[in-house]
Specification:
Length: about 250
């Protein structure tokens, strides 16, 4: 079967799983949230990366039902963690450009929130600069609907696209996620340190939170802390892990 048909089957047969990568508050060192990252556990092929199947889902339209499934599962899981009495978490969901423009993401978020009881202000949606640059007025209207629901918006892979912060300010955005490409070579690359520091300072001056991705070393974390970066994600804390492992990480710090 073509990957498209196999992906449709995987979705209905429960072969897609959500992994969660912790997001850490840099000032307190505590896990305050997680990014949900979908995985395909194929009985024959094993683990298939979203880097392989999300593009197929986008082109074929499977991204519609797949995106709805992710949104619903994340809100249901978030509500389970709340009911278990674990610390409040902000959960982030990725939206690919075609998904953002061709599916009703605001309606999808609204029903996932209503169905689960998960609070809107604990849901964060990640979009790339590319998704916002395409048909910007339409994008702005969708973001305004999401903002009215109380959902938070993050710009993913920030610094790799073409938008300026001035352009981004036209959208109701809450968080900038510094692309991991700027973090990787800290402290070896003076340029990357200057770029990261500039994103943090400009983000803060515009009233945005800043999260650094791909943090792998204590030195990188120390640099980000010194610059006042708000949150980080990366192997230094944890890889993306299944629900049970993420719950264990939360319980270990409770
Ligand atoms: O987890 P990993 O680093 O392998 O993810 C690879 C890519 O897949 C990333 O760009 C990530 O944003 C994307 N991705 C992961 N989960 C989802 C999802 O649920 N929806 C969408 N649209 N993209 C996802
Ligand atoms: O495009 P997006 O930023 O949503 O995807 C994040 C990707 O980065 C995921 O595939 C995740 O597995 C990967 N990732 C997360 N933390 C680290 C890290 O510390 N180092 C590296 N090299 N990759 C990471
Ligand atoms: Mn992301
Ligand atoms: Na990213």
């Amino acid at each position: 079967l073509a990957m498209e048909s196999r992906l449709r089957l995987a979705l209905t047969q429960g072969h897609l799983k959500l992994y969660f990568q912790p997001q850490v508050d840099i000032a307190s060192g505590r896990i305050v949230g997680a990014e949900a990252l979908v995985r395909w556990l194929d009985p024959h092929e094993g683990l298939i990366s979203p880097a392989r199947f999300i593009p197929v889902a986008e082109v074929s339209g499977v991204i519609g039902p797949l995106g709805e499934w992710v949104m619903r599962e994340v809100c249901l899981q978030g509500q389970r963690w709340r009911e278990a009495g674990l610390p409040e978490l902000t959960l982030a969901v990725n939206l690919s450009p075609r998904q953002f423009h061709l599916t009703d993401v605001a309606g999808c978020a609204a029903s996932a929130l209503a169905e689960s009881g998960f609070p809107a202000h604990r849901l964060e949606l990640e979009l790339t600069e590319t998704a916002l640059a395409e048909r910007p007025e339409e994008a702005r209207q969708v973001l305004l609907r999401l903002q009215a629901l109380g959902v938070r918006m993050a710009v993913d892979d920030f610094g790799t696209g073409y938008s300026s912060l001035a352009h981004l300010k036209r959208f109701p955005i809450d968080v900038l996620k510094i692309d991991q490409g700027f973090i990787r070579d800290i402290p070896r690359s003076g340029d990357d340190m200057a770029i990261s520091a500039a994103i943090i300072a400009m983000g803060h001056s515009l009233g945005l939170q800043v999260l650094a991705e791909g943090v792998e070393t204590q030195e990188q974390l120390a640099f980000l802390r010194e610059r006042g970066c708000d949150r980080y994600q990366g192997y230094l804390c944890s890889r993306p892990v299944p629900v049970a492992e993420f719950t264990a990480l939360l319980q270990a710090q409770a």
